[in-house]
Amino acid sequence: MELWIRSQNKDYLMKVNMVSIFGGAIFGSNEKDNNIILGTYTRKRAFSVLDEIQEKIKQQLIVKLNSPMRPDDLERFE
Fold first, then answer.
1. How far apart are alpha carbons 66 and 47 in whole angstroms?
2. DSSP label at 57?
3. What is the reported pTM?
4. What DSSP state is assigned to residue 32?
C-alpha cells in the first residue's frame, strides 16, 4: 500500500514507508531511509495526527479488502 503525506509547511510531498513521533515532531521515512520532519506539534497533537493517518490507512484497507473497484468507480468518490 502506498502512503503519500504532505508536510505541515507544504514543502514536501513524499511516499512514506513509516511514520514516527519523537517529542512533538512527526517524521516520515522513505525507501531510502531518509527521515523528513513532516510536522511539529505538541506531543498530544502529534499523536492525534498519527491517529488521523492511521484512520486513513484503515479506510483504504477496507475499500481494498471489501469492495474491489474499477478506476471508473473511484472517480465518483473524488
1. 28
2. H
3. 0.68
4. T
Q: How many CB atoms lie within 10 A of CB 27?
A: 16
Q: Does residue 48 or residue 58 have the better pLDDT? A: 48
For residue 16, count other CB atoms closer than 10 A to its CB.
Answer: 20
- For 22-39, write each residue's pLDDT tens digit: 999 999 998 887 888 999
Average pLDDT rounded to a whole number, residues 58-63: 70
In the 8-state DSSP scheme, what is residue 26? E
Residue 53's H or E segment, with its range, is helix 43-66
Q: Which residue has the cell 514543502?
A: 11
All 3 cell numbers of residue 30?
Answer: 522513505
Q: Which residue has the cell 515532531?
A: 25
